[in-house]
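Every protein is a chain of amino acids, and every chain bends into a shape of its own. The protein below has been through that process, and both of its lines are reproduced in full.
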Amino acid sequence: MTVEHLHNCKASHRATVPVHKIFRRQTVWNGDVEAFDLSGNPKAKTAYGWSDGPSNKERFFAVLEISAVKTEKKGVGL
């Protein structure tokens, strides 16, 4: 599985979500995104995967869901 290979962890399929992205009234991407629950990854508990392109040049994408962490450092002037 691509998610497990790219992120070196175990992945369990959670859901398939249809996505239709439109920009300026034109479809720029239309397909399914797969959601996975992860175990063994220190950075994330969820990943998303999809493929794009013609079958002879299809590319696979797998991204981690990582929350942005905001911290305040006291005593630091900007």
